[in-house]
Write a structure and sequence with these properties.
It is a single chain. Helix 4 packs across helix 8 and helix 12 packs across helix 13. By secondary structure, the protein is α+β, with helices and mostly antiparallel strands. It is elongated, with a radius of gyration of 37 Å. The strands form ten sheets. The chain has a five-stranded antiparallel sheet, with helices on both faces. A four-stranded antiparallel sheet has the order 8-36-35-34, with no helix packed on it. Strands 9-10-11-12 form a four-stranded antiparallel sheet, with no helix packed on it. Strand 1 and strand 2 form a beta hairpin. It is about 20% helix and about 30% strand. The protein binds flavin mononucleotide. The site of flavin mononucleotide (FMN) has 21 residues, from strand 3, helix 6, strand 5, strand 6 and strand 7.
Length: about 650
């Protein structure tokens, strides 16, 4: 509004000084006209050459199809100080983008063009320059371009405005825009294609090309004619969604407008998806109550872990007979347990399921046909949302390297052996994880005669005849068993702890290694741990070395470690957090309230829905605690219950 008043004032002053605002005026104003002008000014009216025709200023600006621009002639290069809504609407440039600039940008095709378009008549441009230099009026026609690159003909009239001392203080430009029927082809950048089509269509019914129209339509168009034809809101959200949840939260605290923008649920969903991957977001979507909590809150809680809490879960049924060294994993909201070591070292091959989404969850023994041979020290992993895959372990006849698959959602669940060619050595106490929901990764473990292994194998289970592939690396972390593998950032794997070979000894480890399997030549990297050169504890408050611990992977690649077999049995129940994506990854202790599991080793953990880790089983040194189930919830309960 302020700008419009300035323009109005300049316009009126210009008239009094002999400025001509009408298209065909050639004569200067008489004294009488000047007097009348004074009256008009007071009443907010303007006149034309033909006499005192009272036209309301607002009408002039709003109901005629003319663009209107004012430049400051006392500043170098005629910077624009005002443009009207018609100018903004027809050209697609918003006032805030162009105030302070010279009007010649309209001769450039689109905001990224580096020079005047060759079809713009250079003779006309020279004539404008001459008129401006000589302080006389200009009238002429030249080619201009909308922001989206579509051409426009501009019947331009430039009128100098003189100050009291006769010096030209402002230039007023009036633009009568018409459609230019020139086919210039698409803009060089692909995103303009759509824009051109849209704008070309729009021009057919453009209210500002010769026809008067309500200004409100201009406001609507201003919204959709933002950068790259996206509204400011959408654009801002696209940019914001590329930031980390922490950054979006910080940006939101900077100013009110950004705060409002960061309150959008769709934005937070995009932020989570971009930061944590679509698979994690998809899983989070299935968490009961997550909707109520909202993506913004979920992102905050999973980032800060402020709401993390332990609680003991009481469920019906029981896993019987008792056992240890079994393996469990989560399949959606179900927990599946397979095998283990029963009394008298008896290898077991039964399957149990606990459905956590049931009103009263209870362990259920599932009758599955053709079960794999009994075993302990094996791994059980989830693939593809409903498949379970068992690998290796120690059976009645010794160590195993077989692979069995079960589709839990099949009408009659049946274990099926997958004969992967070139399998790794038989082993137990190895570690496994899955990539892309389709590939099983197996690392290390203990081979025959107690030999520790350091290899990493991958089996793509989508292949008709799966083939085991050893990841070729020039260097491997020391061989080990009882370590953990967690996946982050798509195809990166983090290895922690275990009982590792150290010269002639076998020592508990707190070392962290990573490998990126998306690289052409994957390499193991030493991230942090006791062997780091320099200070004794360079990676922060590192967890004491351990094996058979629990490792929980969190959205964004962070890993939580607790439990396991530690020398001295002291701090194993502490929760340790590490973010491998940090420049200098640092261990932190996470103090979590609630009732945590008893200190034990050989716990089995499953992460359910990305927001809760379930810990079951384990050995306290005195007893097996098979039917104790604890939950570490990472998001607040009121949203999830
Ligand atoms: C008030 C004012 C409005 C103008 N409006 C336009 C316009 O709508 N389109 C255009 O191509 N040039 C317009 N011009 C002309 C350019 O700003 C510039 O003066 C012209 O291109 C000649 O200068 P140059 O050779 O340095 O570019 C306007 C100039 C003034 C002072």
């Amino acid at each position: 509004m302020g700008c419009r008043l300035v323009a109005k004032w300049v316009l009126i002053r210009g008239q009094k000084r002999g400025g001509k605002m009408e298209w065909d005026s050639g004569s200067d104003m008489s004294m009488e006209e000047e007097d009348h002008m004074q009256i008009c000014e007071d009443e907010g009216f303007l006149m034309n050459d033909g006499g005192p025709v009272p036209i309301a200023m607002d009408n002039l600006l709003h109901s005629t199809p003319c663009g209107f621009a004012v430049t400051d002639a006392l500043e170098p290069d005629q910077p624009i100080i005002y443009v009207n809504a018609v100018f903004e609407y027809v050209t697609g440039y918003k006032a805030e983008e162009i105030l302070g600039r010279n009007c010649r940008f309209l001769q450039y095709r689109g905001p990224f063009a580096q020079r005047r378009h060759p079809l713009v008549d250079s003779m006309v441009v020279s004539e404008i320059r001459r008129c401006l230099d000589e302080g006389v009026e200009f009238q002429g026609e030249l080619l201009n371009f909308r922001k989206d690159g579509t051409p426009l003909m501009n019947r331009l009239r430039l009128t100098p405005i003189h100050g009291d001392d006769g010096i030209i203080t402002h230039i007023i430009g009036i633009q009568l825009f018409t459609e230019a029927n020139i086919d210039l082809g698409p803009m060089p950048l692909p995103f303009y294609k759509e824009a051109i089509t849209r704008c070309a269509d729009r021009s057919l019914s453009d209210p500002f090309l010769y026809r008067p129209a309500a200004i409100g339509q201009g406001h609507f168009c201003r919204e959709i004619c933002g950068i790259f034809q996206l509204s400011d809101e959408v654009l801002a959200q696209k940019i914001l969604s590329r930031l980390t949840p922490r950054d979006v939260a910080s940006v939101g605290s900077v100013c009110k407008r950004l705060y409002q923008l960061t309150k959008n649920e769709d934005l937070w969903r995009m932020v989570c998806q971009n930061a944590w991957g679509s698979e994690t977001t998809r899983v989070l979507e299935t968490v009961p109550g997550a909707k109520r909590l909202g993506w913004g809150r979920l992102a905050r809680e999973l980032t800060t872990l402020e709401a993390a809490a332990w609680r003991k879960l009481t469920v019906g049924g029981a896993v019987e007979p008792s056992r240890c060294n079994f393996s469990a994993c989560a399949v959606g909201n179900r927990l599946v347990l397979f095998g283990g070591e029963g009394v008298n070292m008896q290898p077991m091959n039964d399957t149990f399921v606990l459905d956590l989404s049931a009103a009263n969850p209870e362990w259920r023994h599932v009758n599955v046909s053709s079960p794999p041979p009994g075993r302990w020290g094996h791994t059980l992993s989830c693939l593809n949302g409903s498949w379970l895959v068992v690998f290796g372990g120690c059976g009645r006849q010794g160590l195993l390297n077989d692979v069995f698959i079960l589709d839990l959602d099949a009408q009659q669940p049946t274990w099926r052996e997958v004969a992967g060619s070139a399998p790794p050595l038989p082993r137990s106490w190895h570690s496994s994880c899955t990539l892309d929901g389709t590939k099983l990764v197996v690392s290390g473990g203990c081979a025959d005669s107690g030999v520790l292994l350091s290899d990493t194998f991958l089996l793509d289970l989508t292949m008709e005849k799966p083939i085991w592939k050893e990841i070729p690396v020039s260097w491997t972390p020391p061989s080990r068993l009882g370590h953990s593998l967690t996946v982050y950032g798509g195809r990166k794997i983090l290895m922690f702890g275990g009982l590792a070979k150290s010269g002639p000894l076998r020592l508990r480890s707190s070392d962290v290694y990573t490998i990126d399997l998306s690289e052409e030549e994957p390499k193991w990297r030493y991230l942090t741990g006791s062997g780091m050169p320099g200070a004794g504890n360079p990676g922060g408050k590192a967890p004491p070395p351990r094996l058979d611990h629990v490792a929980v992977s969190l959205p964004g690649g962070r890993v939580l470690i607790f439990g396991g077999s530690v020398a001295g049995l002291h701090s194993a129940s502490q929760l340790y957090l590490l973010d491998p994506t940090e420049e200098k990854p640092t261990w932190r202790i996470l103090n979590v309230p609630g009732q945590q599991p008893r200190f034990a080793w050989g716990h089995s953990t499953c992460v359910v829905g990305g927001t809760r880790a379930l810990v079951l089983g384990g050995h306290t040194g005195e007893e097996w605690i098979l039917n104790e189930l604890h939950e570490l919830s990472l998001a607040s309960k009121h949203g999830l219950d």
